[in-house]
Task: inverse folding
């Protein structure tokens, strides 16, 4: 059942991918153009717009629009979306008021645009009825420092020619001369223009040089550049304050996850590292920290249900391995209070074959219908004995593994598991625990080698020390404790180098931050210990990856090991059967799959098909026909079994039974040109 699900998902993903390519460039249906080009034109980010233009159906557009407003909802746990309500109120107000006397709709005017972006000004000052000055409106805003604006600022709009639209005034591009109806001086002489305006309207004249209250950067009557920077900041403010990564994730996962999840992306931090266990198997260790975790309450208990879907793919994008895991989490009231200001750090590790590997992890909260994801591309070393250094793992604490010694945990080196925040931020009073592995050292290198540590800030080395390899007792695992108390808050990089005869042969680095804060909310860690390193699940996972990577010989080695350890596993037997069939070792295939056919309660017909194909290739047609008929009795009619049965009958010389099977298959699925041609050829010959 598990493997059938995998095959279905892989086929589905391929179908979705092809469909996406075929549909590319069609763009959203025409009825959504108004939403994009009018309703949200000032508040949508470039990434959001790019994603929306790649959508092709009403369903996709509706889901995206739902996600768009959710990202802006100040109270996401309530039915109302106050941001959306206020936005459409502003659009309606702009259309009602600011389009008068112009050929444009109100939302398209300068005043309409600013009103939609900033809302109601605190005060409006008008200058009208003066023949020497064009009609102007000065809007005053205050209390928007949280958006990166000055404590108080003005925006001026003027009506050129005293008719039509009011235009947004720029101190640098327009200058006070643009507001005067009869100014005859040098258009580049801001000083003279400002003096002329001051004679008519001193208050307006003062604002034409700087829109920012208390700005001291004007000089010799010249306008302040601060004002034009302010205008640019106002125009871009709706874009700057939105985390729009959700839009890209919507595009990537819209065809893979359920509809109810697709508009509910939440941000997360993540970390991916590679380690190797004592058996020589490489593991991808990953941690994912959602920015929030929604829970349900029943009486005095709180609970949530998380589902992980993981995929490992090769450099060509071919899926090598896919898995699903479920986590049921429960908290009491004390834990939920503590958890309310901490993140969940969910960890796991997966065995992986050598090569360039793409890891994709999809985390779904089945309680809140939210999702997040983690993606990373890694290069996994081969099995050669050359020197190797794994990636660095930096954490604020280590804990000794309490599980049995042969159990494995993510981010564990020997007896120690390293605890970290995915954003790699430390307090100044923390110790930095740094872990990694060195493989392939020969005795002389152990005796004469050194490990050099360098801390770098602003591209300058600020500290360095070294350790002799012979003094490290738990090789290949290396764990170093570094006090941060003497390092000021800043962004750092730590570089670790392996020196042999004082020559650098390997190096790895890791970046981290030291914060000014006195305390940090550390994550709540959730991780399960994995089976012992000799468990067949690892051989099965590695063998499956080699098989899907087109390396059946290597796959066989690991799958036969898994089968010897657990010959009663249907999944292992079936995967080994596929591999032996690919190698055309049909004699070895028979003892692997026959017990599965005779005793397994599974209704998966693939084992029957593999066995029948093996018998057909050996010329044992009657045995193959018997196997396929048993499959039809147990699993019901399906076209693959009927086609295989028809070929067995045909090659055995029983054309009549062959035609019966193939015609039944064609009746069930008419779109089979190859089978149709085969039937026609058989009829002509008969």
Result:
């Amino acid at each position: 059942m598990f493997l059938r699900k995998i095959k279905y998902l892989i086929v589905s993903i391929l179908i979705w991918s092809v469909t996406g390519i075929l549909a590319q460039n069609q763009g959203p249906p025409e009825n959504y153009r108004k939403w994009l080009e009018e309703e949200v034109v000032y508040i949508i980010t470039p990434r959001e717009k790019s994603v929306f233009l790649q959508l092709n159906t009403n369903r996709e557009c509706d889901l995206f629009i739902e996600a768009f407003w959710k990202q802006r909802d100040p109270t996401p746990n309530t039915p109302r979306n106050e941001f959306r309500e206020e936005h459409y109120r502003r659009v309606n107000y702009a259309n009602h008021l600011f389009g008068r006397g112009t050929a444009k709709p109100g939302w398209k005017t300068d005043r309409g645009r600013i009103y939609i972006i900033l809302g109601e000004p605190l005060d409006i000052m008008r200058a009208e009825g003066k023949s020497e000055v064009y009609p102007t409106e000065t809007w005053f805003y205050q209390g928007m420092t949280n958006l990166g604006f000055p404590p108080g600022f003005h925006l001026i709009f003027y009506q050129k020619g005293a008719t039509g639209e009011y235009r947004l005034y720029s101190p640098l591009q327009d200058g006070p001369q643009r507001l005067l109806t009869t100014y005859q001086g040098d258009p580049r002489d801001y000083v003279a223009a400002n003096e002329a305006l001051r004679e008519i309207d001193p208050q307006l004249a003062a604002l034409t040089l700087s829109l920012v209250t208390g700005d001291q950067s004007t000089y010799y009557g010249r306008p302040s550049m601060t004002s034009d920077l302010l205008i640019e900041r106002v125009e871009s403010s709706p874009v700057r304050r939105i985390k729009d990564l959700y839009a890209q994730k919507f595009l990537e996962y819209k065809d893979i996850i359920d509809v109810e999840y697709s508009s509910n992306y939440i941000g997360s931090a993540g970390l991916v590292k590679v380690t190797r266990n004592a058996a020589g198997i490489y593991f991808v260790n990953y941690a994912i920290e959602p920015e929030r975790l929604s829970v349900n309450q029943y009486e005095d208990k709180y609970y949530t249900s998380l589902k992980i879907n993981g995929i490992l793919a090769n450099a060509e994008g071919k899926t090598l391995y896919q898995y699903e895991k479920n986590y049921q989490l429960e908290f009491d009231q004390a834990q939920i209070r503590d958890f309310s200001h901490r993140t969940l750090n969910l960890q796991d590790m997966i065995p992986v074959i050598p090569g360039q590997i793409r890891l994709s992890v999809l985390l779904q909260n089945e309680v809140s219908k939210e999702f997040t994801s983690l993606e990373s591309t890694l290069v996994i070393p081969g099995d050669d004995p050359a020197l190797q250094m794994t990636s660095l793992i930096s954490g604020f604490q280590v804990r000794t593994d309490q599980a049995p010694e042969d159990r494995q945990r993510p981010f564990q080196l020997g007896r120690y598991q390293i605890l970290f925040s995915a954003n790699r931020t430390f307090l100044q009073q923390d110790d930095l625990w740094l872990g990694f592995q060195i493989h392939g050292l020969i005795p002389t290198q152990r005796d004469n080698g050194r490990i050099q540590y360098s801390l770098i800030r602003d591209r300058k080395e600020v500290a360095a020390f070294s350790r002799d390899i012979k003094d490290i007792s738990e090789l290949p695992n290396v764990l170093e404790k570094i006090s941060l108390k003497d390092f000021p808050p800043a962004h750092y990089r730590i570089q670790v180098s392996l020196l042999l005869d004082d020559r650098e042969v390997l190096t790895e680095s890791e970046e981290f931050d030291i914060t000014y804060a006195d305390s940090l909310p550390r994550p709540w860690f959730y991780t399960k210990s994995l089976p012992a390193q000799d468990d067949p699940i690892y051989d099965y996972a590695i063998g499956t990856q080699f098989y899907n990577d087109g390396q059946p010989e290597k796959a066989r080695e690991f799958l036969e090991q898994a089968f010897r350890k657990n010959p009663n596993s249907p999944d292992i037997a079936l995967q080994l059967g596929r591999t032996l069939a690919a190698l055309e070792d049909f004699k070895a295939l028979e003892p692997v799959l026959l017990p599965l056919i005779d005793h397994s309660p599974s209704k998966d017909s693939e084992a029957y098909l593999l066995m029948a194909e093996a018998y057909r290739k050996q010329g044992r047609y009657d045995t193959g026909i018997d196997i396929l008929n048993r499959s039809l009795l147990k699993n019901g009619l399906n076209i693959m079994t009927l086609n295989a049965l028809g070929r067995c009958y045909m090659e055995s010389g029983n054309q009549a039974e062959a035609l019966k099977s193939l015609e039944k298959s064609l009746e069930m699925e008419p779109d089979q040109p190859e089978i149709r041609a085969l039937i026609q050829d058989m009829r002509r010959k008969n």
Notes: Residues 536-685 form a domain with the Serine Threonine Protein Phosphatase 5, Tetratricopeptide repeat fold (CATH 1.25.40.10).
